[in-house]
Amino acid sequence: MRGGTVSNPRVPVWLKPRGMTCVVVGGGPVAARRAGRLAEAGAEVVMLSPTLCPEAAELVQRGFVAWRERPYRPGDLAHAALAVAATDDPAVNAAVREEARSRGIWCNRADDASDSDLDFASVTCFGDVSISIATGGKRPDLAKRLRQALEDDLATGGDAFIRLLRQCAASAASAGDDACPEP
């Protein structure tokens, strides 16, 4: 808190979804990335979608996620601990969010970060150290660029990432949020 106000209404936490049932509604690249991250962390992931993109199909083929070849239906979150609404239809995503809310289930809505209980941050790990970079869903491209710069820098033991952060801060202060030089 700064000056008695909350400057960032999010709380960074590391979810350990091992054994949790996580329902991912959607079969596109965003759904695949989020399903993959949850499965990698040990979640029992169920994807609901009539079709799958190649990345999602690979997750199913390799046994990382279960696939229900159909659209979302009310009641699909009955046994879920976490939900991801990642379709290209805002009405479906809103319906998933509403069911999650009514059941007390955390939900990530890929098309509307302001209507989500959690964000999927860009993450990098070096041994026991994990670092996440989040933009509240507003600038995933910037989070990815910063993560990549951090990975490259830490791999070489340099301090280029700190210089990049300083340049971003200076550029944002003078030219707006979108001003950040390429790493």
Automatic annotation (TrEMBL):
User: Which InterPro entries does this chain map to?
Assistant: Met8-like, NAD(P)-bd_dom_sf, Sirohaem_synthase_N
Pathway it works in: Porphyrin-containing compound metabolism; siroheme biosynthesis; sirohydrochlorin from precorrin-2: step 1/1
Give me the reactions it catalyses: precorrin-2 + NAD(+) = sirohydrochlorin + NADH + 2 H(+)
Q: Its GO biological process terms? A: siroheme biosynthetic process
**Do the record's keywords include Oxidoreductase?**
yes
- Per the UniProt entry, the Enzyme Commission number(s) are 1.3.1.76
> What's an example of a GO molecular-function annotation for this chain?
precorrin-2 dehydrogenase activity
Q: Which residues form the signal peptide?
A: none
User: What keywords tag this UniProt record?
Assistant: NAD, Oxidoreductase, Porphyrin biosynthesis
In terms of Pfam families, this protein maps to:
NAD_binding_7 (PF13241)
What's this protein's name?
A: precorrin-2 dehydrogenase
* Species this chain originates from: Alicyclobacillus vulcanalis
